[in-house]
Amino acid sequence: MERSLETQVSQAVDAWLRWLPRWEPATHRGRVAVCRRCFGSPVLSAAGLGADVPHGVQHGLSTRIKTIVDHSVAEYTALNLPTLQAELDQQAARNRARSYRPGEGLEPEFEGLPLDPDPVPGAPFLFTIAGLAQEADAHVPALPPLSDEAKAALRQEVGLADDYANMVGREICSILLHHRLRIQSAISTYVEPQIEQMLAELTESLDAPFDPNDPLSG
Q1: Can you tell which superkingdom this protein's organism belongs to (predicted)?
Q2: What is the pTM of this model?
Q3: Are 12 and 64 in contact (CB under 8 A)?
């Protein structure tokens, strides 16, 4: 039996809440580019996860919700959009033919994130995961070109799929409003104390930049 959208959203929030106690603040250098999935996301706004919430916390929930939207759109496409479905089937078969697919099978907390760290000026990487994936992709034959008629039909069906995705997204946002209290409670329990501890440690290090036991610091 197909689960209702309310049930799917509730289960996604439940899964995120089970993961949240394992979250820890990142200690490495942050990325320069913002996450296009999370930045300005109406889903995160509906969930009450504003800009003051660390991106690592946001991303796990937004990815789980995106999976629900993608599944709904896939069902709609299979039933109503034959040209788009045929194109997606061909693309899926091409993807399966690639020998290296590092972006697949990742946990929601990592799905959709860049595969490599940001480059450091003057210190180029010997290789990158994204580069290896591109090399593998280059060995797979490209999809056959579409006729002008097929391109026009595909553009129209992509527009319909986008409209349906937006409709599902709006409904999910309405559902998420009912989960805001338990989401905020979890943030207060597992996230805010760690942020406060980091700020306290930073303040302490700024107030006492030198080791008091170091004779050279006197």
Answers
A1: Bacteria
A2: 0.84
A3: yes
Q: Which residues contact 165 (CB under 8 A, 6 or more apart)?
A: 69, 72, 73
Which of 118-140 are b and which e, b meaning 16 or more Cβ less than 10 Å from the residue's Cβ? eeeeeeeeeeeeeeebeeebeee
Encode pLDDT of 164-209 as tens digits. Answer: 999 999 999 999 999 999 999 999 999 999 988 888 877 777 766 5
Tell which wins on pLDDT, 34 or 92.
92
For the chain, the domains span: 5-23+31-118+125-205
How far is Cα 29 from Cα 24, in angstroms, rounded to an integer? 14
Q: Is the dihedral of CA 128, 130, 136, 139 positive or negative?
A: negative
Per-residue pLDDT, 210: 57
**Beta-carbon count within 10 A of 102 CB:** 13
Amino acid at 207: D
- Smallest CA-to-CA distance from 48 within 195, 191, 179 is with 179
Q: 44: helix, coil or strand?
A: helix
| Cβ neighbours for 190, distance < 8 A, ≥ 6 positions apart | 20, 21, 23
pLDDT for residue 218: 47
CB 191 within 8 A of CB 61: no
Burial grade of 163 (CB within 10 A; 0-12, 13-18, 19 or more): exposed
